[in-house]
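Risk register update: the risk of archive-format incompatibility is retired. Evidence:
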Amino acid sequence: MQLFFEQLVNGWALGSLYALFGIGFGLVFATLGILNAAHGAYASWAAIIGYYAVTSLGLPLPLALLAGVLGGGAIAIIVDQVAFQPLRAVGAGMLGALITSIAFWIILDSLAGFATKQQSLAFPPSSYPYNMVDFGVIRVPAMQIITIITLILVTTGMWILIARTRVGAAMRAVGWNATAAGLGGVNARMVILLTAFLAGATSGLAGVLGGIATNNVSYTLGEALLLKGFAAVVVGGYDDVRGTAIAGICLGIIEVFVAQYISTSFRDGFTYILLLTFLVARPRGLFGSISVQRA
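Archived output:
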């Protein structure tokens, strides 16, 4: 039973990373109608920024984490304004936005590879809590606890923002119809910028925490998060951060248990079987309630 509970916590922490990433990915899709393939690069760049903040500037982990989050948000805004704003101006569809995002994904990954010299970097162990915390019969790494708590706080904060504030109402209005929202007095441009920043920031948070958890800070870090985060959004429902969080956690737990009790080679395959099942049987996900038909 000890192994079971340890793997349960491992899956919960891993799923928390998927969920953190998926929350931002789903936010962009629900509000802007964009499947942003470049989203994974935000996580990679945030981890790189956090790494150099620690190793080159000597910043403590909280400030390095903040630097990564702000960096991810800033990059997301730049990409949105350079890549997607011109497409919105001419009324381009979702396919054009997807192709453009793939191009920026390649560009950002190439720049990240240059920044890391195509190497896998790692945060110094002294820069983050690496002690174990006892919970009865199991011992849990402190960083896993931090990751899980971070997801709870982010999910709660994002849900309150989207569901209970005027800003969230404006975001939902833009998600339904940006033109109508503008006619109703909503500053659609500011909503778009805020959405892009929040999406990049949550992705950046997942990137820095993921870089620490996996001892892998590289230009490829965001690729796995992109695929699993997308799965969390599809399963949970892209317009409900709570659904994405729950789905991400479940995916992480399933992935760890499949690797432990069945086969590591089937770990990713099971995730995509589940993804395809939801795309066919319930495309809105477990908690989804709206559909997006624009870019």
